[in-house]
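User: My collaborator sent over this chain with a note saying "see what the structure looks like." That's all I know about it. Can you take a look?
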Amino acid sequence: MNTLVAVAIAPFGVGDELSANVAEVVKVIRESGLPNKTYSMFTEIEGEWDKVMETVKKATFVLAEKGIRTEVIMKMDIRPGFENMMTEKLQRMEDKM
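Assistant: Without extra context I'll predict from the sequence alone. Here is the result:
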């Protein structure tokens, strides 16, 4: 089933600058081949449930396997019968403005 996820995966206790660790996480997400977009606080990923969840797990474990405490915040939209939600949800809103 198509799933849209907004996820923030971040290290804890590694200092004030997190960009190097976050870059490792985003790289795993981009290499998944799933549609994704990274913003300042979250990365959106869209695809079939199992593939999306597998990608979130791999992206999380890239830090956790290094012994880094890792925080994951996730919001999901599972909407049967819909695809391309990452772009079409925004387009429907823009069309109404």
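A starting point for your reply to your collaborator: Strands lie at 2-12, 36-38, 43-48, 69-78.
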